[in-house]
Amino acid sequence: MYRCKTKTVSRYLRPTSGMIMLIVRCYSGENLLTYSFPRSTILIYRPWPWRLIRMFVKLPLYVFGCCNEEQTFMMDNFLFDNPEPCPGLYCGRQVIADGNYTECGANRIYLLACDWGTRVNERGICVPCNGYPDVYDWLYLGFMGFLPFLLHCASIKFTSAHTREFRNVVLPQIAAAFVECVFPAILSLLIVEPKGSLNFYTCGVQNLQDWYPVFYNPVIDYTRTVHCTQEAVYPLYFLPFVYYLFSLLSLSIIHPIVVCVFKLKKEGASGAIYAALYFYPILIILHSVLCGLIYYAFPYIILFAAICLNAMHLALYETQTPICILHDMWRKKQNLAVLGVLIYLYLYGILSISRFSSYWVYNVMLLFIPAPSIFYVLTVKFTHPHRLNMII
């Protein structure tokens, strides 16, 4: 025979708020405590007379658990008892329906990590990710989304190098590649929480270890491994995979339509499609293995790639003299388009490093955006092969 007692405790935190705690304790026939269920929440008091009205109306809802998502999150963070911390960096306990906690690294049924979309907080409890991405996170996702488009443009350029019909052959394929990258990016953002919105909830990134939690599963007494692997950076690891999948699907649909509508030669257009079927798997493998390193190094990767592409592009000009390079640069639309892309890459890399900071050093760095092109034009006369013989 069991008997249960219910006790309600209220405590003022400050003049405008207080804490309500409901404690349910069940005793056996031998008067031994067999079950204790504490639940607590915060009530915000308003000036008279709304203070008493709000308290009496909201109290039954808090007691019986009829509250919204924000209030539930508050209650999970003000539970009465504090569990022992779990070993490892990503092992945590989950709060189950009766108010108790699971074991470390244990889900409701199986021995798993925290649920997808949750992360361990300071108290060792798995809580939902309800933060919003910062500017650097958006720049990282923009880099992951813009990289396939650059590869598309490069493959289209090289496979269509023999043709001079830029408007009828190259431009439609570049427009198709742009649609194939923008539409999957929007669709990828719409399917994550909150669904239907271009914004999303994230757990945030604290350090490089968050990208590789599989290497930080704790080993108890050198014999038992507690598997706590989860996506600690939700959804920054998951989103690029979804984006690449949707990009492949859109590639298989949009690109053949463009080829048929503009009556492009299959020999030239198929080369860009085959190139995409090669570089998408490579991007997926690189992201799965080097995601954390790419997250912290992508601004410097962009700047290094932009400098190399600038030198390669200018080296393809037929006449390597400063006057001819400047003349060809302004005369041909393709060269102006490439120059605009390079300036965009320089600007994107500098803004990613600065994270839109107003520090004066980053503002000065913006003045050096045309520096690589100017340096190449001024020093091209010293790179002619016959000058190497003079030096030797």
UniProtKB/TrEMBL annotation:
Q: Which residues cross the membrane?
A: 138-158, 170-192, 241-264, 271-290, 296-316, 336-354, 360-380
> Which GO terms of the molecular function aspect are on file?
ubiquitin protein ligase binding
InterPro entries associated with the record: JAMP, Seipin
Q: Which top-level group of life is the source organism from?
A: Eukaryota
* Biological process annotations from GO: ERAD pathway; lipid droplet formation; lipid metabolic process; response to unfolded protein
Task: Tell me where in or outside the cell this protein is found.
Answer: Endoplasmic reticulum membrane
| Major localization listed first in the record, in broad terms | endoplasmic reticulum
Instruction: Name the membrane topology term.
Output: Multi-pass membrane protein
Keywords on record = Endoplasmic reticulum, Lipid metabolism, Membrane, Transmembrane, Transmembrane helix
Q: Tell me yes or no: is Ligase among this UniProt entry's keywords.
A: no
Q: Name one GO cellular component term.
A: endoplasmic reticulum membrane
**Do you know which Pfam families this protein is assigned to?**
JAMP, Seipin
Name of the featured protein: Uncharacterized protein
Q: What is the lineage of its organism?
A: Eukaryota, Metazoa, Ecdysozoa, Nematoda, Enoplea
